[in-house]
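Bug report (template v2)

What were you trying to do?
Predict the complex of my protein with NAP.

What happened?
Run completed; filing so the output is reviewed.

Input:
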Amino acid sequence: MNRVALVTGASRGIGRAVAVELAREGWAVCVNYLEHREAAESLVRQLRDSGHMAIAVGADVADRQAVEAMVQAVKAELGPVDLLVNNAGISRQGLFQDTDDETWDRTLAVNLTGARNTAKAVLPHMLSEKRGCIINISSIWGLRGASCEVAYACSKAAIIGFTRSLALELAPSGIRVNCVAPGCIETDMVRALGEETRAMLVEETPLGRLGTPEDIAHAVAFLASERAAFLTGQVLTADGGFIV
Ligand code: NAP
């Protein structure tokens, strides 16, 4: 029987590395994407060529119906979802006073409500099986706060509350819910900040480098594994010592 993982936002960056690592660990993987269909399909081809089971499914995690349809598509092609990784996320920079309603609403819709939509869609199977695992990707900015990224930092702080609350509610049903809070990771999201900010973030990271998407994928794979069987409601900060 397949062990099936759904990774949201897996066409690029951290989500892509998570999908690769989970496939290596034997999971059949659904690579969810929004805009970069070709990147997602190319990853799926790469995984299949290496002997893994994988499919790509496009869906906006903020769209409840699209998420339900995605989870049904995964069930039909791979089997019901046993592991959900809520990775899809967006960040936009700007002063709080300049943040318009659209930016505020969309940031919370994708980063917070997206995780709620996917969890709601996969939980009926997990609850009936009395097992399952949900891993949410937060951020150090959700722990620390971030100037010029108030909406983003709020959404990531909320993901920590979501993780802890859901972990408590679902523990009696044998479902573990944990969270990874990455530090500064070398992806398009950080590259968009520019070279000067990137150099500053390297300087501020005690281990003296940005993290790689694989650094985060390893943390996710650990939380998904039996080695983490007694861990739930936890925030694993993977940040090179940024917050100590
Ligand atoms: P990224 O390189 O910008 O990639 C974002 C991914 O999310 C893409 O695959 C994108 O899909 C997908 N996505 C965006 N909106 C979506 C939506 N509405 N529905 C479905 N998928 C959507 O970002 P990243 O740096 O890998 O970040 C991944 C996660 O880690 C995010 O939650 C982010 O907040 C968190 N994080 C990142 C860092 C960092 O330093 N990079 C630090 C802390 C936390 P398409 O490309 O197909 O549109």
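What did the reviewer find?
The two ends are 42 Å apart (CA to CA). The chain has a mean pLDDT of 98.
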